[in-house]
Amino acid sequence: MAVSVLKVLMKDAMDTTSLLEAITKEGFGADEIIGIAAKTEGNGGVNDFGRRLIDHLLRQFFVEHGSRTKEQAANVPIALSGGCPGIIAPHLNVFGRVDDPNPSDELRIAVGSAISEPIAPEEIGRPEGVAKIAEGVKKAMAASGIEDPADVHYVQTKSPLLTMERIEDAKARGKTVCIEDTMESMAFGNATGALGIGVALGEFPMPKAEQIGYDLDLYSSVASCSSGVEHEEAQIMLVGNKRGAGGRFRIGHSVMKDAIDIDGIYEAIRNAGLPLSDHPHPSDLGDALVNCFIKCETAQTGRLRGHRLVSLNDSDVHHTLQTKAAVGGVAAAVTGDPAMFVSVAALQQGPGGGGMVAAIIDTSKLPS
After folding, report:
1. Structure confidence by residue, pLDDT tens digits, 49-89
2. H or E stretch including 135?
3. Does 226 participate in catalysis according to the annotation?
4. Residue 342, strand partner residues
5. Which domains are delineated in the chain?
6. For the chain, which terminal residue's Cβ has fewer other Cβ atoms within 10 angstroms, N or C?
7. Active-site residue, selected from the candidate residues 39, 139, 158, 295
8. pLDDT, position 149
């Protein structure tokens, strides 16, 4: 079966009616949903319980509108990037299987998913956690049918971060954790996922413990990682292109070198197969762009193209929200669409101060 990719705008935090309407129109049901990556409203932090609410509602949707059991629904990868500061519009990106009786031999999207082994608190930010996620990514790639890692353009993970309860659990067992600041543990959780992806795809060998979260020259160019309180394991969705997969959709990727690198976004769209001039305009995209999946990060130097920034020192609004809002604005300006998947805490998911970008296009809507 081929893969269809839908962007579904959410009318409110509990809106699953729009999801049902969209998949019905596209011609598949709840049982055919492979995975979901979504921007959800909330504070985007450790205590963003909006993610838990929406995760629960989506898994309940699988059960109520399909034939999955609760246990089966729990194994569908759902990555919720919490926080829609600025002009980012909440939305679901839904990957579903559809029939294509006459698939072409052109490159089209293929998707594989997997669930890693549970990741203990003491394994976050450490090689043990990287190894578990790498094994999960290898399983997802096998499930996708993609054989060449060069054909993989986007790997989305959702893995655990550290809470006070998880830190105390580790200490009670005589273990230590990589960091005791729960908010900052989000970045280390994401770095663990990114390096696991890179190891699995052969981008680099297994990193040393001291490189995780610190060696910014070591990064995956296809990793988009999110961490939260929803799961104790990594939920993994791997997306690439495969000849003969069928369907209308194709994916490409690039990287943003910094937070305002619009060329990085346009290059990902070109890489997906949408021709663009040297100086594109949002109107050039037409209706062909489904979405961009962007990771972003405030540069640890506190500077952007030589200019001093103050967000890292802001005690009122955490720098992750400021960066997410800023890059969300950049992405909206570049594409003409505020419903872009912009996720922060991009340690080792692209160059330091920048991040990876994946773009999905609908080939049936390419300009003739």
Report:
1. 888 899 999 999 999 999 999 999 999 999 999 999 999 99
2. helix 127-144
3. yes
4. 294
5. 1-98 (3.30.1330.170), 248-365 (3.30.1330.160)
6. C
7. 158
8. 98
